[in-house]
């Protein structure tokens, strides 16, 4: 069992007064190390809900989710936060960088939260910023970076603790086509170089198809849209 993510028969319902609203039911999904999986589907299909469950930010109504062979929903809140910091990276459509901190400081943040020394955090953050092509922008604040550069800083921040898996919600949703293509190529090369798994929610079908396996969330079911090796 070398799956980074193992999601077994997961259901998420919301209580709407006396009614139960089922977003999806009995979803099973395995993601191997170094694999890219795109989740597509129409607005409101439940893509972000699923991603939040995989990241331990929300609890399933039933079913089990293991990340690196550990059931994240059996951990205490504090244990889960530590586990997330160590094993998972997150990238969102809007980069969520802290505006008053430099690119380097933003990327150092998850290291600091994990208790690393400032010197080691600085070294790791500079190295990962170099990997995303931003060695020349270490002291720039988010407001002094382009949209694509900001998203690359956000990706560097997600990678700095060397997670097994990065979860992305519309990573190119806010970027023009050319800049989005740059981010797509970066994800591809990081996956191939570092063996990190990426699970990405996107509306960008050409990016989804070009990266590997594509799953479609539709009417509460997860359907295979494209196999890994097609
Ligand atoms: N806290 C909540 N309480 C009740 N319903 C919710 C809650 N959060 C989300 N939903 C519902 O769950 C459904 C799925 O939402 P979700 O954000 O996962 O969709 P999505 O596929 O990511 O959509 P989009 O592509 O528009 O971002 C929506 O119909 C939404 O209204």
From TrEMBL:
<dbReference type="GO" id="GO:0089705">
    <property type="term" value="P:protein localization to outer membrane"/>
</dbReference>
<dbReference type="InterPro" id="IPR017871">
    <property type="entry name" value="ABC_transporter-like_CS"/>
</dbReference>
<dbReference type="InterPro" id="IPR015854">
    <property type="entry name" value="ABC_transpr_LolD-like"/>
</dbReference>
<keyword id="KW-0067">ATP-binding</keyword>
<dbReference type="GO" id="GO:0005524">
    <property type="term" value="F:ATP binding"/>
</dbReference>
<keyword id="KW-0449">Lipoprotein</keyword>
<keyword id="KW-0813">Transport</keyword>
<protein>
    <submittedName>
        <fullName>Lipoprotein-releasing system ATP-binding protein LolD</fullName>
    </submittedName>
</protein>
<keyword id="KW-0547">Nucleotide-binding</keyword>
<dbReference type="InterPro" id="IPR017911">
    <property type="entry name" value="MacB-like_ATP-bd"/>
</dbReference>
<keyword id="KW-1003">Cell membrane</keyword>
<feature type="domain" description="ABC transporter">
    <location>
        <begin position="5"/>
        <end position="230"/>
    </location>
</feature>
<dbReference type="Pfam" id="PF00005">
    <property type="entry name" value="ABC_tran"/>
</dbReference>
<dbReference type="GO" id="GO:0016887">
    <property type="term" value="F:ATP hydrolysis activity"/>
</dbReference>
<dbReference type="GO" id="GO:0044874">
    <property type="term" value="P:lipoprotein localization to outer membrane"/>
</dbReference>
<comment type="similarity">
    <text>Belongs to the ABC transporter superfamily.</text>
</comment>
<dbReference type="GO" id="GO:0005886">
    <property type="term" value="C:plasma membrane"/>
</dbReference>
<dbReference type="InterPro" id="IPR027417">
    <property type="entry name" value="P-loop_NTPase"/>
</dbReference>
<dbReference type="InterPro" id="IPR003439">
    <property type="entry name" value="ABC_transporter-like_ATP-bd"/>
</dbReference>
<keyword id="KW-0472">Membrane</keyword>
<dbReference type="GO" id="GO:0022857">
    <property type="term" value="F:transmembrane transporter activity"/>
</dbReference>
<dbReference type="InterPro" id="IPR003593">
    <property type="entry name" value="AAA+_ATPase"/>
</dbReference>
<keyword id="KW-1278">Translocase</keyword>
